């Protein structure tokens, strides 16, 4: 029978999916809490998104600097996979697949080292749903992670196999969206 | 016919509702983008939640300090309504209603002054769904707000009247939650 302490510290596998807004945004919001606890937080961007999450990145860099300078909060490491490559311009799935594999190999290395206490695998569902990685190997690796390592995976179309093994799954569902009315995204809100 | 610039700058009324996680968390994630644009961000906590969002608050304080010290990002103002009062202990709805009114009066004052460019009205749906404020007056005030003021309202049970006038509505829906298995919340993840 596990103690209260053990229950409280059970590391989580969290999935944010659905066709609505807020999947990544809520993951980055969750990262604020992990940072505030003094945890190491790792962000792994698996898909080049519209504006590369410039706002979140500036905020996270600022929080990481506050940790370095004043010891407040924890460390933050931000990895943009395939940066410098022609990710979005390439229509060659082999390239995207090898970048995805490279990114996942980095995550696996860090999990083995117990580098972080929170991993944000941003848009990783996209990679999984495209079949660019072996889903069984991914789930096996996540399931065998040691220590106190929490993982949050975002993106549409989370595979059922992932949902089955996750601890917490939330679907962000679109009720109404201004783009439906032909409005455009704006700095400060969408990026 | 509005120009592209005008379209891009149309201020948004955003609602995060549903029974899942991530409603407030995504709002605080959105605040990172607004802060990064140099906007004034105002947080108005309408309901005393479990741990008072201590992690988000520390992160926001750190970002606000970075703005003051180094000019990066924007200002952040954080208002915890009813702080010092016995909000949760009180079962007297009149007290909660008067605190809600006090909080809303503060938001109205700031909207009239165009104090912020993003308003996070955290758990305001709770206040509205309880009927503690006049929903028609709230909607009228929000609809007549001037300038470039974006508002995001979080909480379960968003009233239909609010959804009808909102620009962007997302429902965070629970697919799976560890508390269902009897697990407890933990620092760094839930607060």
TrEMBL record, chains A, B:
Citing just one GO molecular function, the answer is: ATP binding
User: Where does the signal peptide begin and end?
Assistant: none
Q: Share an example GO biological-process annotation for this protein.
A: cobalamin biosynthetic process
**Coiled coil start-end:** none
Q: Which Pfam families match?
A: CobA_CobO_BtuR
Looking up Gene3D superfamilies in the UniProt record yields: P-loop containing nucleotide triphosphate hydrolases (3.40.50.300)
Is Transferase set as a keyword in this record?
yes
Q: Which InterPro entries match?
A: CblAdoTrfase_CobA, P-loop_NTPase
Keywords in alphabetical order, please: Transferase
Look up the domain of life of the source. Answer: Bacteria
- Protein name, please? Cob(I)yrinic acid a,c-diamide adenosyltransferase
């Amino acid at each position: 029978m596990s103690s209260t302490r053990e229950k409280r510290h059970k590391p989580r596998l969290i999935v944010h999916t659905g066709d609505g807004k807020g999947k990544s945004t809520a993951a980055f919001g969750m990262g604020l809490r992990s940072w505030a606890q003094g945890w190491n937080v790792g962000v792994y961007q698996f898909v080049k998104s519209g504006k590369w999450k410039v706002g979140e990145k500036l905020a996270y860099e600022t929080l990481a600097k506050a940790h370095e300078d004043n010891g407040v909060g924890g460390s933050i490491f931000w990895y943009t996979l395939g940066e410098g490559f022609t990710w979005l311009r390439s229509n060659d799935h082999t390239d995207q697949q090898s970048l995805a594999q490279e990114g996942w190999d980095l995550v696996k290395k860090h999990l083995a080292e117990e580098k972080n206490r929170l991993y944000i695998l941003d848009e990783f569902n996209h990679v999984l749903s495209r079949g660019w990685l072996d889903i069984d190997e991914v789930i096996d690796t996540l399931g065998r992670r040691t220590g106190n390592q929490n993982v949050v995976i975002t993106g549409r179309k989370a595979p059922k196999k992932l949902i089955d093994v996750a601890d917490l799954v939330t679907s962000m569902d679109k009720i109404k969206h201004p783009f439906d009315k032909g409005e455009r995204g704006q700095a400060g809100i969408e990026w």
